[in-house]
Amino acid sequence: MITLYGFGPGFGLPEMSPFVTKTEVQLKMAGLGYVKEKTRPNASPKGQLPYIVDEAEAVADSTFIRAHVEGKYGFDFDAPLNLQQRAQAWAFERMIEHHMYWALIGARWTDPDNFAKGPSHFFDGAPAHMREKLREDAQFRVAENYLISGLGRHAPDEDVDLAVRSLLSLSVQLGDKPYLMGKTPCGADATAFGVMAGILTPFFVSPLRERAQQFDNLIAYVDRMMERYYPEFAWTPLCEAA
């Protein structure tokens, strides 16, 4: 049995982390049984979540977890795709993980209101005398990484403008198809879904979310993926209420 370690539900999502969501959806795609446990990033071999333990073998990082599943269990997430489509799917994954994801992080961590209602609560269990210092240190480290990513070097409206270009690219790629590459979900769909759900959750209010809501096909796509992989989660009512 595989054990998946993640942050757990929160922020109006079945899983707070887009990368943990990616891995969880891919485990479901592969039809593999798993149990899920909550933990902190410092418990992971690479200091980040997700990681899995599969028969005493620990594998960290969502991309390496996917490779582990494909290698050990012989499941090809991109089976319906030809070579060119596989290359396109990989390119879109890189855009999503290295550009759109950081726009999401900027909206959650650098906006004071969103940080206060969301990530700051990661430290609620810390001793009272350390709590604020831990929050400040974590917010500073994330802001520093956001700067290194490139998006954090721009004014708030400029970084959203850049992120919207990636949203537009994703919307054009999706078109009127049910999934990114066609009629069947592939590995990249798990990645796109994790980040898009994180952007669209009504828990956070941000210019990024407002702009993302202009793409009707992306909203419908997230609804479709949520219905398929988290049917027990009340996602649509949340979006309608927002």
From TrEMBL:
Signal peptide: none annotated. CDD domains: GST_C_Metaxin (cd03193), GST_N_Metaxin_like (cd03080). Keywords: Transferase. Residues 18-114 form the Thioredoxin-like fold domain. InterPro entries: FAX/IsoI-like, Glutathione-S-Trfase_C_sf, Glutathione_S-Trfase, Metaxin_GST, Mito_Protein_Transport_Metaxin, Thioredoxin-like_fold, Thioredoxin-like_sf. One of its GO terms (molecular function) is transferase activity. Residues 166-225 form the Metaxin glutathione S-transferase domain. This is Glutathione S-transferase. It comes from Bradyrhizobium erythrophlei. The lineage of its organism: Bacteria, Pseudomonadati, Pseudomonadota, Alphaproteobacteria, Hyphomicrobiales.
